[in-house]
Design goal:
The chain is of the alpha/beta class. The protein has 9 helices and 9 strands.
Length: 223
């Protein structure tokens, strides 16, 4: 029997959402003049709220604005490592650290499953001692450089569960042979929490609190 503890990242492990903060930190480090483009990214966010684009489209546009068209793997790793170092030092909730330590001590494999881009989520997960990452992926160009397009779907909502199942298949882990715990702050992860043997609503917003009460999912507050 395999034991998996699957953690969402933003506002579950971290105090705040990370995408915008990563973009601002990366732009400041790589090309400070791009900070002047941030208001355009704000308008893009309004477009998402008005349903003129989806989350994947928003990611593509804001990546392009704040990071540019292409980055080498080495340059992106530098930007991701700098952000992850600061985030793990100051932005990770102690309750999340304690729960991960408890799950690890009980023999669980720690898996981060996040809609955030893998190029910086993996750097955070590595510093937290997590075993695997399931995340949104960026496309590469012919020279292997990272571009703003997504490689596949945005790892969000029902897609996140599908990507976890794909990862399990790649690892040779059968669902029937796995005991799964899942942790998330957001109702978009309801498919994951429902699928898990143990689903936990963590730092939950109102809609997830209501659903957790209906489903009987324990609520945890790590803030």
């Amino acid at each position: 029997m395999r034991h998996l503890a699957i953690y969402d990242m933003d506002k579950t492990i971290t105090r705040q959402a990370t995408w915008t903060r990563f973009l601002l930190a990366a732009a400041k480090r790589r090309a400070p003049w791009r900070l002047a483009l941030y208001p355009i990214a704000g308008f893009a966010g309004l477009g998402y709220l008005l349903k003129l684009t989806d989350r994947g489209g928003l990611k593509r546009l804001t990546h392009r604005l704040m990071l540019g068209g292409v980055l080498t793997e080495e340059r992106m790793a530098d930007l991701a490592d700098a952000f992850a170092e600061a985030e793990v030092a100051h932005g990770v909730l102690q309750g999340a650290r304690d729960r991960m330590a408890r799950d690890r001590a009980q023999g669980y494999m720690l898996v981060m499953a996040t809609a955030s881009h893998g190029y910086y989520a993996a750097a955070i997960a590595r510093r937290l001692g997590m075993d695997a990452v399931v995340a949104t992926k960026a496309k590469r160009d012919e020279q292997g450089r990272i571009i703003s397009e997504l490689d596949g779907d945005n790892c969000y909502g029902p897609v996140k569960l599908r990507m976890i199942l794909d990862w399990m298949d790649q690892q040779g882990i059968a669902r029937s042979d796995a005991q799964v715990r899942a942790y998330s702050d957001h109702v978009s992860d309801a498919p994951l929490l429902e699928w898990a043997d143990e689903g936990f609503a963590v730092n939950a917003h109102g809609p997830l609190r209501a659903l957790a009460a209906e489903k009987g999912w324990p609520e945890l507050d790590w803030r």
